[in-house]
Amino acid sequence: MWRQTMKRTVMMALMLVAILGLATSASAKQAAKPAPKASAGGTLDLEAALSHGYVPAKADKTIHARIQVRADDAKAKERAPMNLAVVIDHSGSMAGGRLDQAKQAAHTLVDRLGESDRLAVVSYGNHVTTNMNSVFVTEANKEKLHAAISSIRLRGSTNLAGGFEKGASIVGEHPTDDSINRVVLLSDGHANIGAKTPHALGKLASKYLEKGVSVSTMGIGLDYNEKLMAEMAKQGAGNYYFVEDEKKLAKIFAQEFETLSQVVARDAKLVLDIGAGVELLDLHGFPYTNKRGKVTVKLGDFYARQHKDIMLDLSVSPRGEVRRDVVTARLEFADVTKSNKRVHSKATLAAVGSDDQKQLAQVDKSVMRRVEQINYAKSVAKATDAYEKGDRKEAEKILADQQKRLKDAQNSYEFDADKVSEKVAELEEQKKEMKRSRSSSSKSGKRLKKSSRKKMLDVMQSAEAF
C-alpha cells in the first residue's frame, strides 16, 4: 500500500514537472521577441537591420542583414593634416596632352595644400622615380614640389605596381596620430611590369591599408584596365575615378581634395561577430576577413555625410533556444571632430525561432529593397563581362531578366515606381548601346564598360548611388 502511494506520488510529480515545462516553454516562445533592428548614434551613425526577425524553428533559413554606416554633417574645428603621395604614370601612352594635364592637376593640388600637410611626388614608366620625397608643403617647399612635377617626362612602359608601392611606402613613413594617409594614383594604361592583375594589385592595396595607407585611383582615357583600378580603390578604401577627358583631371583632383578636407572620421573598422548556428554566406561591396566567425571590414576614412552600406547573406540553423543573436556589429573609429578620440559603438540583431507562418512571412522591405539593388549591380556587372567576352546575346538576356526582376520587386517590396522605371530605362539603353557598339573594344564599347563598372561599384557600396 505504501509503495503504491509513493508510486502515484512520483508519477503525479513527474506529470506536474512536464506540464510546468511545457507551460514554461510555451510562455518563453510567447514572450520571446526578435531584435531585427538596432542603431547607435554619433559622428558615425551605425544602423543595422535583419530581413527576417522570425526564422523556422526546425529548418535552415537564408536571411540578410544590412549594416549602414553614415557620417553626419559635423565639421572638425580644423581639418585633419594630409600625408599624401601623388603617383603619376609617365609611360608613352600618356602622350597627346595627358601627362601635361596630369602634371597641371598635381600643380593645383600643391597650391591647395598647407604647411601642416605633407606631399611626395612619384612617377613611373619602366622604372620608378621619386621626383620629390615627402616634405611639409611650406611656401619654400612648394617651389621644389612644382619643379619636381614639371621635371616628369614621357618614357617607358607601365610599372604601376612599383609606382604605387613606392608612393605607399613613402606615405607609410610619415603618419601621425591625426593625419590622413593616402596615395593618389594615376594611369591611362594596363600594368605590364611587376604585379599586373586586379587580384594581385588589389592585394597590394590591402596590404598597405593594413598599415594605415589608403589609395584613390584615377583611370584616364579609355584604354586603362578599369577592373584593376577599381579593385585597388576598393581594397585600399579610397575613391575610384573614371576620367575619360584628361582636361577634367584638375576638377577630379579638386574633388578628391575636398573629400579629404571634409573627413570627420578616420580609420573606421567594422567588426561583425556572427552568432552561434549562423553562417556568413557572403558580404557584398567591401573586402573583408573572416576568422572563426569574427568578420572584419576596413572602411577607412569618412567625409561628412558619406554613406557606406554593407549587406550580409546569412544562413541561420535551428537551435534549442527560442531567441538567438544573429550578428553583433561593432564600429570603431577615430573621431576627427573630437580631437581623434577613439569611439566604439555596437548594435546586436536577434531572431526568434517560430512555427507560425504569419510570423515567418514578416519581412523588412527596406532590407529586401537593398538586396534587390545588390542583385541589380551584380547582374549588370555580369552582363558587362559577357559583352566584353563577345557574348552580346547572353549580356542582353541578363539585362532583360534584370528588368523583369526590378518590376517584380516594385510590387513585392514597395520600390519607388519612378526609380524602377528609371532603372529599367537605363537597362534598355544599355542593351541598345551594346547593339550599336557590337565590339567591346570599340571606343563606344570601352566607354560603356568603364562607365557601367564604375556605376555598379558605387551601387554595391551605397544605396544612395542606385
UniProtKB/TrEMBL annotation:
Biased composition (Basic residues): 433-454
Region (Disordered): 426-466
All copies of domain VWFA, residue ranges: 83-257
Pfam families xref list: VWA
Swiss-Prot/TrEMBL keywords: Signal
Signal peptide interval: 1-28
SUPFAM superfamilies: vWA-like
Gene3D superfamilies: von Willebrand factor, type A domain (3.40.50.410)
Residue ranges of coiled coil: none
Keyword Signal in annotation: yes
PANTHER family: CALCIUM-ACTIVATED CHLORIDE CHANNEL REGULATOR, ZINC FINGER (C3HC4-TYPE RING FINGER) FAMILY PROTEIN
Protein name: VWA domain-containing protein
Species of the source: Persicimonas caeni
